[in-house]
Design a protein that fits this description.
homotrimer; 7 strands; SnoaL-like (chains A, B, C); SnoaL-like domain-containing protein (chains A, B, C)
Chain lengths: ~140, ~140, ~140
Amino acid sequence: MTRAITEADTSTYLEIQHFYSRQMSYLDSGDVTRWAETFTEDGVFAANAHPEPQRGRAVIERKSREMADSLAAQGIQRRHWLGMLHVDDAGDGTYLAHTYALILATPAGGQAEVRLSCTCDDVLVKTGGRWLVRHRQVYRDDLPK
Amino acid sequence: MTRAITEADTSTYLEIQHFYSRQMSYLDSGDVTRWAETFTEDGVFAANAHPEPQRGRAVIERKSREMADSLAAQGIQRRHWLGMLHVDDAGDGTYLAHTYALILATPAGGQAEVRLSCTCDDVLVKTGGRWLVRHRQVYRDDLPK
Amino acid sequence: MTRAITEADTSTYLEIQHFYSRQMSYLDSGDVTRWAETFTEDGVFAANAHPEPQRGRAVIERKSREMADSLAAQGIQRRHWLGMLHVDDAGDGTYLAHTYALILATPAGGQAEVRLSCTCDDVLVKTGGRWLVRHRQVYRDDLPK
C-alpha cells in the first residue's frame, strides 16, 4: 500500500531533490545523453502533450535531441524547475514523487517568460546507489488531463 | 527568544518543506477539506489582500471552496509555489516558517502566467506527528504591507 | 578532484538551501549590510551582466545599496528565487553550489512578472559554523555566457 514517507525518510526526500536538480540541468544544458541515462533502460516518459509515450532511453534521447537542436537553432534557453515535491513509498521498492514543474524560456537578447505550468508524477527506483526514473507522467495545466 | 534553527534541525526544515508541498497540492487540486485540515482547529489565515482574517478551519474551508468553485467555473488551474524557506524556532514549541509564494494561473487551452508574488509567514506547530499551521500571514507584493 | 556530494552530505545540502533562503531575503528586503556579510570579506560577485566583478564586502554592499535605493524609488519589490540546487564537493574545503535563479518584480499596485532567468555558480565555504560565498558567478540566460 502506498504511504506518505515519514521523518525517517528525510534523506530519501533530499536525495530525490538533488537528483532532480542534476537531471534537469542535463536537459537544459543540452546534455541529452546524460538526461536519457537518468531514466531506467526501459524508462517511459509520457505527457498529455505527446500523442504517445517515449519508451526507452534510446527514444528519450532521440526526442530530447530533436528538441534541444530546435531550441538551439532558435536561440532559446529553457529552464525546467521542479518544485513542491512530495514523496510516497509505493511499498514495492519504488517511490512515487510528485512535483510541480515550471518551464521558463529566454530568447537570446530577449525577455524571460513562463512557458508552461505542469505537474510531474514519477515512479523512481534506486539502483546501485543511483536514482532513476522508471515512469514519468507530465500533465500540462493548459491541456485536458 | 526566537533563534534560527541549526544543523541539528535539518529534519525539521525538511519536514516543513514536505508539509508545504502536500498542503498546497490539496489547495490547487480543490481538496479544500484536506487543505483546511492543515490548519489547527482555530487556525488563522490572514492576508493583506483580505479585509479580515479567516478564523478557524470551517471558515478557511468555506472561503477556499468559494475560490475553488470560481476557478473551476472559469477553467483556471492555479499553482501555489512556496519556496526560499527559512525557519526560526520560537522557543515556545512553535516554529516560524518564512517563504516566498508564487502563484501561477493557467486557463484551459491558454497561456500559463504569473499571477502574484507574495511572502508567507507561518506559525507552525507539530501535533501528534503532524505539522499544522496555527497562523498564516500572506503579504502580496503589489499591496501595502 | 570535484565530486558530487553523497547521501552522507544531506545536511550540507540542506544547510546550503537554508543559507540561500536567508541570504536572498536580506537582499530582497533591502538589508544590504547583512547581504554583504553573506560573502567572505574578499568575496567576489561576478555576472555576465556586469562590466566587472564586485570585489569585497564593501563594494558588494555599496552596489547593492544603489540597486535597493533605485528599486525603492520606483516602488518595485524584487524577489530572487534560487532553486534546482546541486552541490559538488571541491575537495579543498569548498563546495560548488549550482542553482537556477529566477528574479521576479512587482510594482506597487501592479502586476508581478518574471524579470530574469539565470544560473548561479557559487564557491561556498563554511567558517565558524556559517556558510559564506567566496565567489559567485551569475549568468543571465538572455546574455552571452
